[in-house]
Amino acid sequence: MNIKEFAEVTGLSAHTLRYYEKIGLLKNVQRSSSGHRFYTGKDAEWIGFILRLKETGMALEAILQYAQLREQGASTAPLRQAMLEEHQANLKAYIARQQQHMAVLEHKIWLYKNQKVG
């Protein structure tokens, strides 16, 4: 698919896709005979994973580090696993804090609904 179609599929702008290619997050993007970018299903899967990492709070620098390790092949699998495990632990802690915040909000709303707020 061309960059316009890929942008629609991924929800990213063409500018962002070109930036990701420039900084090395998207590697080996195929080109048509006329030089236009051509994206594959594998590219879409990779972008989906990148977006998931971003949405769960992983910094772009860490995603780049992960991508660089991924590019080096299977020998870096333990390092990538460790990165994901660390991110998972951070995400779990973040979710636990958010659940505490939610509980306080729910209690406050309950107080308002029951007119027990001064």
From TrEMBL:
Amino-acid biosynthesis listed as a keyword: no
Lineage of the organism: Bacteria, Pseudomonadati, Pseudomonadota, Gammaproteobacteria, Alteromonadales
Protein name: MerR family transcriptional regulator
CDD domains registered for this protein in UniProt: HTH_YyaN (cd01109)
PANTHER family named in the record: HTH-TYPE TRANSCRIPTIONAL REGULATOR ADHR, REDOX-CYCLING DRUG-SENSING TRANSCRIPTIONAL ACTIVATOR SOXR
Top-level taxonomic group: Bacteria
Natural source organism: Bowmanella denitrificans
Coiled-coil ranges (or none): none
Residue ranges of domain HTH merR-type in the record: 1-69
A Pfam family recorded for this sequence: MerR_1
Keyword terms of this UniProt record: DNA-binding
